[in-house]
Amino acid sequence: MTTRASRLQLSLIVVTLVLLHFYVRPRLFDARLSPDFLLFALVIFAMRSGPGTGAVAGFLVGLASDALTPARFGASALAHTVVGYAAAWGRAVFFADNLLVNAGFVVVALWLRDLLLLIASGSGERQVLLELGFYSPLQGVITAAAGIVVLYAFQEWFAVRLEA
Amino acid sequence: MHPASDRSYSRRDTVLFVACLALSVAALFSPEQWTVAFAGGLRATVLRPFVWLQERAEEGKTSRARLRAVTAERDSAAYVAQFLPSLTAENERLRHTLGLSRRLTAPYVPAEVLHQAQVTDARMLLLSVGRSSGVSTFDPIVAPEGLVGVVWSVGPATSVAMTWAHPEFRVSAFTENGSAYGIVAPSASATGSDAFLELRGVPYRDSVATGTVVLSSGLGGVYPKGIPIGTVVGVESEQAGWERVYRVRPAANHGSISHVLVLTAPPHGSVADAFPPDSAEPTPRLDSLPAPRVRPGPPSGRKAAAGSAPAASQTSPAATPSPAAIPAPTPVRIPAPAPPPPPKDSGR
Predict the structure, then answer these.
(1) CA A9 to mean position of chain CA atoms
(2) Higher pLDDT, B286 or B37
(3) By C-alpha distance, which of A42, A39, A31, A146 is closest to B116?
(4) For B258, which DSSP code?
C-alpha cells in the first residue's frame, strides 16, 4: 500500500473518531466515564507517525481541550504533547501491531494524560488519588474497548494482528 | 501504514517535541486575560463546528426527557390554571397586606451543558450560550435544584462556567431561617462523588441544625438572594469559642445536569420564590414551627409577649391573615466583620 493511501486512510479514521467524540460520546453515559475518542485518535495517529508529529498533534489536541475545559490553560496541551510523543516512541519499543498492545497503549496513555493534567492544573492530593486510582483506569478501559472495536473494524487498514 | 522500523527518528522530532513543550509551559504561565481571550477565540473559530456538533448531540440525548418534563409541566400548569383567578386575587391581597412590592422576575437564558471527557470537567463547564445570547461574565448559573456556579468567561457563542466544585468558588450565604451567615466554598478534602461544600465563618454561638437549607445571601452583588446552595449535613470543624465550619451537601449536581439557566441580569432582590421548597431538602422554617397555644387575653410579661403573634395567627377566624396576625419577621443577624470583600463573590 502506498504511503499516500495510508495517510488518507489514517486521516479518514481520525476524522471519524473526532466526529464520534463530539457527536456520539455526549449521547453515551456520564462524560467522565465515556470513551475519549480524541485521545484514542491521538494515540493511533502518533503511533503511526514520528515522535515530532505525534508531539505536534498532541499539542493541538491539548489546545482544543484547553479551550473547551479551561481549568488551567496549557495543562492539557502539555499533557497531550507528552502523550503524543511517548506514543510514537512506544511503538518503536513495543511490538505495537497487536490488538491488545494497542489497547494497552490507550489505557496507559489516558492514565498518563490524566496524571500530567492533574499535576499541571494544581489539583488536591485526594482528588489526584481518586482520579488516578479509579476514574482514569476505568475510563482508560472503556476507551480501549471502544478502540478495539474501531481497530477491529479497520484491521485491514491498520494491519493489526488479532491473535495474542 | 508505516511500519516502525521504516522510521528514522531525527533531531527534528526532538526539536518539535521541545517546542511544543515550551509552548505548553508558556501557555501555563501566561496572563489569564490572554489565555481566556485565546481560548474564546479558538471556540469561536476553529472549534465552533465541533461545539455545534456537540450541542446537537446533547439536544438529541435530552429531547425525550425534555418532552416528558414539558408534558408534565403542561399538565401541572393546566391543573394549577383551574385555581389561577382565586390564587391571583389572594396573592395580590396578601402582597398589599404585607406591603411588598411586586416581585422581580429575573431574565434568564437556557443553556446546554457540554460535558467534556476530562478530569477537570467537574470544575468548569462549557455552556452553549455566549455573548450573542446576552450572557456576560459573572452571571449566576442555576439549575432547578439550586446554584450551579457562575459564568467565568464568555465567547460569542459559548461560555465557560465555574462550578461550585472549583477551588476558587465562593458565595455569600445564609441559612434559610436567617440564623447564620457565612461563606460557602468547596471542601478541600473531598472529591468525586464525595464532593461537598463548606459553610465557613459561622460564629461559634450560632448553631445550625442538620437539614437546614443554605441559600445565597445576595451580598457581593453576583448571586441574587435566595438561591438554594445546599443542605447542612453536619459540622466539619470548629474552633472552640470562635467559629464553626459546617459540611453542606450541594443542592445541584453539576455532573449530571444537562441544562441550566443563566441569570443574565441578576436582580438585587430575592429569587427564592423561583425555587419551590421541594427543590432542596425540606427544612423547618420558623413560621412553620408548631407554636404554643395561648389563650386570648391580655398579655402579661415576657412569655405572653413572645407568644402573642403566633397565638393571634392561630386564633384568627379569617382565612386571610390580618396584618396583626402575620408573625414578626425573623431578626437577621448582622454578619460578623469579615476581611474586605472582593468585588465579586467568586474571586479569580
Answers:
(1) 18
(2) B37
(3) A31
(4) -
Contact status, residue A90 vs residue A105, Cβ threshold 8 Å: yes
Which residues make Cβ contacts (< 8 Å) with residue A105, sequence separation at least 6?
A: A43, A47, A87, A90, A94, A96
CB-based burial label for B322 (10 Å; 0-12, 13-18, 19+): exposed
Q: Which helix (H) or strand (E) holds A57?
A: helix A51-68
Instruction: Please tell me the distance from the alpha carbon of residue A152 to that of residue A113, in angstroms, as a whole number.
Output: 25
Between chains, do B4 and A96 touch, taking CB under 8 Å as contact? yes
In this predicted model, what pLDDT tens digit does every residue of B209-220 receive, in sequence order?
Answer: 889 999 998 888
Chain A nearest-CA residue for B2: A48
Taking only the tens place, the pLDDT of each residue in B248-269 is 999 888 777 777 888 887 656 6
User: Best of A123, A127, A142 to disrupt the B interface by mutation (most B CBs within 10 Å)?
Assistant: A127
- State residue B341's pLDDT score: 44
Strand partners, B188: none
Count of beta carbons in the 10 Å neighbourhood of residue B242: 9
Name the residue among B30, B114, B191 with its Cβ closest to that of A127: B191
**What is the interface pTM, i.e. ipTM, of the complex?**
0.85
Mutant choice from B9, B14, B20, B55 vs A, greatest count of A C-beta within 10 A: B20
Task: Flag whether the pTM goes above 0.80.
Answer: no
* Contact: B190, A126; criterion CB under 8 Å: yes
Count the Cβ atoms, other than its own, within 10 Å of residue A81.
Answer: 31
- Tell me if A145 sits within 8 A of A110, measured CB to CB: no
Task: Please give the grid coordinates belonging to residue B242.
Answer: 470562635
Written as one string, the DSSP assignment of B80-144 is HHTTHHHHHHHHHHHHHHHTPPPPPPPPEEEEEEE--SSGGGGTEEEES--GGGT--TT-EEEET
Q: Which of B1, B119, B191 sits opposite A126 (nearest CB)?
A: B191
Neighbouring CB atoms inside 10 A of A117's CB total: 28
Q: Are B311 and B294 in contact (CB under 8 A)?
A: yes
User: Which of A10, A52, A139 lies at the smallest CB-CB distance from B17?
Assistant: A52
Q: Which residue has the cell 468548569?
A: B124
Least Cα distance to B144 among B37, B292, B259 occurs for B259
Question: Which of B33, B34, B118 is the mutation pick for testing A, counting most A CBs within 10 A?
Answer: B118
Phi, psi (5° rounding) for residue B52? -60, -45
Predicted confidence (pLDDT) per residue in A54-108, tens digit: 999 999 999 998 888 767 889 999 999 999 999 988 877 776 677 888 888 899 9
The single-letter DSSP state of residue B270 is: B
The number of beta carbons lying within 10 Å of the beta carbon of residue A156 is 9
